[in-house]
Specification:
single chain; 171 residues; mainly beta; 10-stranded antiparallel sheet; 1 helix; 7% helix; globular
Amino acid sequence: MKRPSLAPLACALLLTFGAVPVVQAQGDAEAPILVEADRLDLDDRAGTAVYTGNVDIRQGSMRLTGDRVEIRRNDAGELSLATATGERAYLEQQPDPAEPVVKGWGRTVVYHVAERRVELIDRAELHQGGDIFQGGYLEYFLDRRVVQARADAEGVEGSQRIRMTLQPEQQ
């Protein structure tokens, strides 16, 4: 029996977070990638890796968790999309050692690499410092630190009103 090559798996993992991690913190790109899951289905030709069963992916200060995490690569082999799903899919990273950890939850968490944009969908929640945003759909632009929120999300039943808790600026 021929033993399967680990090269495609190693490539998928490096492409998953090595190219541009969720919020590129100093040193995160050089940190080892740790993945825990019950199952991996890797399709190198299609450019997808699907992890299922209590998935926990970490690299430096970055963490992505969910019941299912799908990683997609573009034609150039670069990470293009990471989608985590579950009752409370979760994403966190500390963008800079002097800044607080950014945390996001939703039934779906989608990271668009080229745009450096995160979508938190259905029971969405984002913590940025002391500020908290909640709603049916939250969109966070990493570089600009812009949050856009809506009560309704496509494919989600019912409205989930926007709620915000904003902390006063420190003098």
